[in-house]
Amino acid sequence: MQHEKRGIVQEFLAGNGSTLPIMNSTTTARWTLAAGLAFVFLWFGIDKFIHPLVWIGWIPKSFDGLIGLNSHVWLQLIGATEVGLGILVLVPHRLAQKVASLFITLHLSAILTQVGWNDIAVRDIGLLCSSVALWYLI
Questions:
Q1: pLDDT in tens, 47-94
Q2: Is the pLDDT score of 108 beyond 70?
Q3: If I label 23, which of 12, 69, 83, 92 is the partner at 20 to 30 A Cα–Cα?
Q4: What Rg value do the Cα atoms of the chain yield, rounded?
Q5: CA 35 to chain centre
Q6: For helices 71-88 and 94-115, what crossing angle results, to 10°?
Q7: Coil, helix or strand for 29?
Q8: What is the 3-state secondary structure (H, E, C) of 39-59?
Q9: Closest CA to 98 of 25, 37, 43
């Protein structure tokens, strides 16, 4: 039986599950989840600095004055944390991504305890599931 050499495109078109040599399906799923979470966290984190008045209403009233910080400072800290997590989840190191997915999970869990059941909670549950899935893929 003669084996013929086929390129990546021919392997893909043959439909036998082959992918790029450096990107198996688990790696592709991991990076897809990381990119999606990074996009959301970077967007929301940066937007807290650009449009603080849109976000300030989401800061719980109990945070105002907590450890001497007003709501606007809390908003900036949360925005900076989200930007940091968005960057960290993209670092091509398993430990960095594992830590980022853990803290994203904790952050979203904390948000879900504050927002009640609404469209924001539905979105955040989807993001929470994504961060947990990323944790398990790493």
A1: 999 999 999 999 999 999 899 999 999 999 999 999 999 999 999 999
A2: yes
A3: 83
A4: 20
A5: 7
A6: 140
A7: helix
A8: HHHHHHHHHHHHCHHHHHHHC
A9: 37
pLDDT of residue 4: 56
Phi-psi region of 19 (alpha: psi -120 to 50; beta: other; left: phi over 0): beta
| Predicted TM-score of the model (pTM) | 0.80
Unique residue bearing structure tokens 């929301």: 44
Reported as a single tens digit per residue, the pLDDT across 25-45 is: 999 999 999 999 999 999 999
- Here the tokens at position 15 are 């439909």
Write out 107-130 in H/E/C secondary structure. Answer: HHHHHHHHHCCCHHHHHHHHHHHH
- Which region, left, alpha or beta, applies to residue 101 given φ > 0 means left and ψ of -120 to 50 means alpha? alpha
pLDDT for the residue numbered 23? 72
| Location of structure tokens 């007003």 | 70
Which residues, at least 6 apart from 109, have a Cβ–Cβ distance to it below 8 Å? 128
